[in-house]
Every structure is written in C-alpha cells, then in structure tokens.
Design brief:
With 152 residues, the protein is α+β, with helices and mostly antiparallel strands. It contains three helices and seven strands.
Length: 152
C-alpha cells in the first residue's frame, strides 16, 4: 500500500445472523461476569459462558469483513483488527457479479484458482470502482476495454 488513502472504500453488507453471533458472544461474556459477581461458587457455569462467549465474539470479530478498500495496486479486505486480507491486482484473473434474491455478491477469481466472495454495501458502485482501478493498473483505457466490462 504505497498510498495510505484508498481510491474507494465500501463497508461490508452484514446480515442479522453475522451481527447476532457477535452480540450473543458479548452478551454471554457479560452474563458470565454478572454470574461470577453474584455466585462465585458457580465457576463451571462461569467458565462455560466465558469460553462460548469469547469463541462467538472472536469468530465474528476475525471472520466477518468490515470494509473493502481499493488501492492503486491491491484490494484490501479489513476484518477485526489486526486481521486483513490483501489481494494484489496482478493476482486477480476475473471479477464477476452474481445477483440473487438477497442482493448481489462480487466474486473475484484469483490466478491461484481460488475465488473470494465480497458483499459490499453498494455492489454496483463497488464493481465499477474496482473495474476502473483494475483497468488503470493494467493500463487499459476505456476504449480498449472488451464489451461487457470483463477484467480478464
């Protein structure tokens, strides 16, 4: 990341389940603290609540994306600190938009035959900005771009 400021930044479109897992984990941690304060002899209950609460909150923190940042040479997917996933533009072979009843997802196909699914808040705007950044990176002008806007 040469430039500290992204060309485009988009929040992740979270669903109720993902957010609920995190809230449930924090709720279980608070309940464990309250139970520990009222009944210190219930150490088994307290430990189970703490372990499950920390596991749920940690899962949501480290596994659910927070934001997608497009830089000049890479796409950075930010999760809970300190985790982030960096996808260099020269590793992206194709970008595809899949529309379904719940919205749209952007599938990024990598040259390693792996695919990454993104769920940005505004998929259309994010796709346009990602395609524009990819074309700039590859030196493709809008006149040279193939019909359909494919980046491969």
């Amino acid at each position: 990341m040469d430039d500290p400021f992204p060309l485009h930044s988009e929040p992740h479109r979270t669903n109720f389940l993902t957010r609920g897992i995190g809230y449930m984990g924090w709720f279980m941690i608070v309940v464990a603290i309250v139970v520990g304060g009222t009944d210190p002899g219930a150490w088994i209950d307290i430990s189970v609540l703490l372990v499950v609460g920390i596991a749920l909150a940690g899962f949501q923190w480290f596994m659910a994306p927070r934001r997608y940042n497009i830089f000049e040479k890479e796409l950075v997917i930010t999760y809970g600190k300190p985790r982030q996933r960096i996808i260099p533009f020269d590793d992206i072979s194709d970008v595809e938009v899949k529309r379904h009843a719940l919205g749209a997802e952007i599938r990024i196909h990598r040259s390693t035959d792996k695919a990454v699914s993104l769920h940005p808040w505004d998929p259309r705007r994010f796709h346009e900005n990602l395609e524009s950044a990819l074309n700039r990176f590859r030196g493709v002008t809008p006149e040279e771009q193939p019909p359909g806007g494919s980046s491969s």
